[in-house]
What we know:
Number of helices: 6
Radius of gyration: 24 Å
Amino acid sequence: MNKRLMICIVMASILVSSGCIDSNNGGNAAVVKEGDQVLVDYTGRLDDGTVFDTSVKDVASKAGVYNPSRAYQPLEFTVGAGQMIKGFDAGVVGMAVGEEKTLTLSPEDAYGVHREDMVKTVPVEELSAVGITPVLGKKLTTSLGQGTITNLTNTSVVIDFNHRLSGKTLIFDIKLVSIGGEDVVAGVDGSDRDKGDNTDTTEKTWEENRIADIETSMGTIAVELYEERAPITTSNFIELANRGFYNDLSFHRVIDDFMIQGGDPKGDGTGGSGKTIELETPPELTHVDGAVAMARSQHPDSASSQFYICDGAQPMLDGQYAVFGKVIDGMDVVRAIAQVETGARDRPVENITIIRITIQES
Length: 362
C-alpha cells in the first residue's frame, strides 16, 4: 500500500478515536424523535407565496398579517401527540437544533381534501327558526362544527364545514429552536440568543402551567391552562374562577362526540360575565380531544365566560375559537356528560352542575 495513504488512514483513525472527528455524522447531537417536546419557528405559505401564518413578528409585519394581540413566539408541541397537522408533525422528526427545512404538504398531510359532503344546503326558514339571519361569509356553529355561509338565495343557504385551508397545498419554512428542556440557542434571525435571559423565549415548560380543577356533579375534570400561549383567555378564565363566578352554574349544552358547554349564568347560551375579551388563536393550540376553548357569538371578540370541552378532536373549529387548555385528567367525566340524555337545544334533561372551579397555584 502507498506509504502516504497508509499514514493518512492511521491519522484519521486517531482523530476518530479521540473524538475530534465524529464517525456517526453528528455523534451525540440530539435530533427530534416522536414524543419529544419541541419549539419550532415557522412561516406558512400557500403555493402562490401568500403567507397565511407565521411565528415570526417581522415576517408577519412584512406579509401584512401582523396581529398586535398575538404573542409571536415559537410553536411548542409534543411530536406525535396529534397536536399538529400530520405533515408538520412528521417533518420535524430527525431535525437538530438550529436546523432549517422547507416542508411542502399535500392536502392529505395538511387540513385534508375539500369534501363535498361537508357542504350543506339548508332552508332559510331553518336558520330563521333559531334566530339566525343568514349573511354571506357569516360563520355558524352547529352539531357538525363551524361552517361558513358561502352562498344564499331567498329560500336556501349553502354552508361549508370544511377547514378554510382544506384542499390546499401548504408550504412551511421551519427552524428547530429547541428539543425538550434544552436552552434555546438560535434566534429567529439566525443569531444566538442569550441563554441567561429566557424571559422572551417560551422556555417555560408545560409542567409549570397552572391546573384548573372543574368540580361537577358528575366528577372532577383537571385542565392544564396554556397561560404562555393564550394569556388573554387564561387570565379571564382564572379571574372568573377565583371569584367564584362559575360556582353552581351548569353545562347547558352537550353533544355526544362534539363538546360539552357551560359557564353561562343565564343557562341558555346567551349570558356572560359582563365583559368580553379579544380572540387569540395561536395556531399550535388546536381542537384536539379534550381541548378547552371559549364559546362566543358571531363577533370574534365576543367571548366572555362560556367555555366548552371537546369530546373528540374537532379540527373544523381551529383558528376560529380560542383554545386555552386541555384536559389532563377526567376525560371519562367529559365523555359521561356528553352522553347524557338531552332535550331541546341540546340541553341535558337532568341538570349537570359546575360545583366550583379551583385554580391550583404553581
